[in-house]
Design a protein that fits this description.
The chain is built from five helices and no strands. The protein is elongated.
Length: 159
């Protein structure tokens, strides 16, 4: 019958009982364990810092706050709820408004976005410009040009 623990023996660093360097082997094992612990702690710190950075950036973008404010948020503020509370508390310092839940009026960022969208809806698109250029290319007389530009036939005034 095969030994059921035979596979696991390869994974262990078995210390030879007849070896005279017992304490030396223990010191080596301790150093190896401490090195692995340090590497894992460094990885954990890196992952936590990355996660906090992402949380801060996400909350700032969601609130419409410039992401440069992130460097002023204390290190102990890490969860989205804590970041949100810190931003509401310090909104006046950084020059933005904390959203008022009771107010039905849109925030300044929302109003500006709406204003930009309205301006873009009335803007000339490349297809409108091409259409206008084609109409101008087809003009043969001064009256046709006046009709195109002014929408009416201009009388002899000012010519």
């Amino acid at each position: 019958m095969a030994n059921q623990y035979e596979e696991d023996e390869d994974d262990l660093d078995v210390i030879d009982q007849n070896d005279q360097g017992g304490p030396a082997n223990l010191r080596k094992a301790l150093k190896r364990a401490e090195r692995e612990k340090k590497e894992l702690a460094d990885q954990l710190a890196t992952i936590q810092a990355d996660l906090r950075g992402r949380s801060v950036t996400e909350v700032l973008e969601k609130k419409g706050v410039p992401t440069k404010v992130a460097k002023f948020i204390p290190g102990d503020v890490s969860t989205p709820e804590q970041i949100d509370a810190w931003l509401n508390e310090n909104a006046d310092i950084f020059g933005f408004q904390a959203p008022d839940a009771s107010s039905e009026e849109p925030s300044a960022n929302v109003r500006e976005t709406q204003r930009i969208n309205a301006a873009l809806q009335n803007a000339n698109t490349p297809s409108r410009d091409a259409d206008t250029a084609a109409k101008l290319a087809g003009v043969k007389t001064r009256e046709e040009l006046d009709m195109l530009v002014f929408g009416q036939k201009m009388t002899g005034r000012g010519r």
